[in-house]
Write a structure and sequence with these properties.
The protein has 115 residues and is mainly beta. Helix content is 0%, strand content 48%.
Length: 115
């Protein structure tokens, strides 16, 4: 199994970023997929998730209304569009299958929100 996150970077408060996660080694279309993040000195936390069909999504209160998760089962890829970013969104972002992470974590992608 491989989970490869990309798209992170440095952005000013109020800006936007789009993350991608390319999955391989399992039947992507059968799995709930999720995005998690880990800020320095903090535990990894669940940010958002999407059902296998893409028909239902869930968001942490801290990102509701600002982040949007989506997926393309033909490309085995899950996306995270992040708008109106805040300094407290600074973290390494990871994707995984399931709610808690069914597989080994990838390398993640760093998102830094700073002026």
């Amino acid at each position: 199994v491989q989970l490869v996150e990309s798209g992170g970077g440095l952005v000013q408060p109020g800006g936007s970023l789009g993350l991608s996660c390319a999955a391989s080694g399992f039947t992507f279309s059968r799995y709930y997929m999720s995005w998690h993040r880990q800020a320095p000195g903090k535990e990894r936390e669940l940010v958002t998730g999407i059902t296998s069909s893409g028909g239902s999504t869930n968001y942490a209160d801290s990102v509701k209304g600002r982040f949007t998760i989506s997926r393309d089962n033909a490309k085995d890829t899950v996306y995270l569009q992040m708008n109106n970013l805040k300094p407290e969104d600074t973290a390494v972002y990871y994707c995984n299958a399931g709610v808690l992470g069914s597989y080994d974590w990838g390398q993640g992608t760093q998102v830094t929100v700073s002026s």
